[in-house]
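Data card: per-record layout.
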Amino acid sequence: MKAITLDKYGSADDLQVVEMPEPKVGPAEVLVRVKAAGVNPVDWKLAAGYLDPVMEVRFPLISGWDVAGVVEAVGMDAGEFAVGDEVYGYIRKDWAQNGAYAELVAANVRMLAAKPASLSWEQAAGVPLAGLTAYQSIRRVGVGPGDTVLVHAAAGGVGAFGVQIAVALGARVIGTASERNHDFLRSLGAEPVTYGEGLADRVRGLAPDGVDAVLDFVGGDAVETSLPLVRRPDRVVSIASGEAEKHGGHLLWVRPDPAGLAKLAELADAGKLTAHVEHTLPLEQAAEAWRLNESGRTRGKIVLTV
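The structure for this 306-residue chain is written out next.
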């Protein structure tokens, strides 16, 4: 099969298009014919060695944790799916090696769910990691009807899902973004504010009594800025800073979650959630996809098609 690999820690310049053996399909696993693979910042950060202290990486490495495709073979005791099923998933395994930047990938059934019927392959591939990150963050701080929620980096890959899920739950959402993304946030149901100096005052202008919960999807000083704005610090969750934990909040690392994937699919098929895909590139242009992702200027998702 064709795959994008790295032989050692490196960058976009080190990615190679190679022929690899087809993956073995173990118990409770299925083989997925990849239609599209989502690109996330963790892909190039992992490849650069930034996660080496906390995650085992084996080479040659095939990157990619987001997949949408068709079940091609079913392993032992994997009756949740059948050949021909359209699936999507967050395929993070016990170590990083055999990911989704390939024509085929083996995945445990606990990492997959039925693909949302209303989404294209490219849109579906953009959902799992970012969508689950947003969904699990929202669940962690108990966002519900009537809450006012502050979402940092609201126009980004994770933030856009956070806005949509919170709005679907009946919350009021204030989202930080650059001015060029304000109309985009309004289209998702959020009230936009420009990040940077004076952010706290701008948020207070919209919510004089403060906010009920904070979702930090950017890091930096977002948590520090938010703490004076939130009524309870235990309702602050971050995916990028341990500062929230110091004040009783949460640091979240997304987990595979088939029930969560099913919920995201339900929201998508009800017209309450979509994936904005800004760039679609063929698998062979994975290096360019990484460079676009590293720029930090992408609204929504970058997806590779296979």
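Known properties of this structure: The chain has two domains: 2-127+275-305, 130-251. Residues 128-140 form the longest helix (13 residues).

See the next section for split statistics.
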